[in-house]
Fold:
Amino acid sequence: MKSLYPEIEPFHTFFLETGSQHKVYVEQSGNPEGIPVVFLHGGPCSGTKPQHRCFFNPDLYHIILFDQRGCGLSQPFGELEGNNTQNLIADMERIRQQLKIEAWLLFSGSWGSTLALLYAQQFKEYVSGIVVRGVFLARQQDLEWFAGNGANRLYPEQWQALLGSLPVGADKEQPMPAVFATLWGDDEVAMRRVARAWMQWSSQVALGAFYDQSRQGEHITQTMVDQVKMELHYARNRYFIDENQVLEGCVKLQDIPVAIIHGCYDFVCPMEAGFKLSEALPHADYKVLPNAGHIAQGNEMIAALVETTDEMAEKLK
Structure:
């Protein structure tokens, strides 16, 4: 069973100028003459981590990581103005041009998978292949599963804690309008209370058995509030795309190598999403992992991802 490659350090970092207040953190590692690959992190609100460089053979890959607008080391942290899907795609294209990359492999997970597929549909000629983990299609039904009638039946106690954090009189059957109103309201105590409950809810669903219950009482910092607001900024704007845009646009990607990896225990993005994408891309290598969940952790998921990047390297040499 394959494991992560050894840790490496970047050979170059910089901040991409976007023509706005946003400065996007970019780093390069691995072999500068190797196969270009760009890592697209999830969220939208998280950021890249040193471990993310380790999914790729550093002798074969030119590894590019970047933190999306307002995330990680990008500046200003948590900034929502000008922070939308089309601008993230534009940032990716600016990075490609600045690094003088002819075509690159897109390696993505969760929200990153949405971004990868949308970028490829717009800039197909610059995409050598796509690896998608934990498919998120950004449909209304996907949001309703996660924050409506779906995952709430898997973790009812954590869901009730989220509902209990909402102001008196909030509609518990349709809680998201109250979540949005509180987070963008003037009551800082209520804002932090809802942000804490949302983080605990989303962490429980995403991490499953990996969720650390001891963090329930963790102090909520402004950084955490900003992360929650960024995640829900995209959700309340329907991810700045048309309904079912991701699947419908896959007709443009029929001749690009694609690998789809989905865990059976992914409760953020249920198996239906991976299956639907495999139907839209019937030529794709579709791997279903019987014991894996949503996150890129655990031996089975890590082995599948590293195996896939090794296979892609053979195809793209």
About this structure: The mean pLDDT is 96. The chain has two domains: 12-138+241-316, 141-239. DSSP finds ten helices and eight strands in the chain. The longest helix spans residues 188-207.
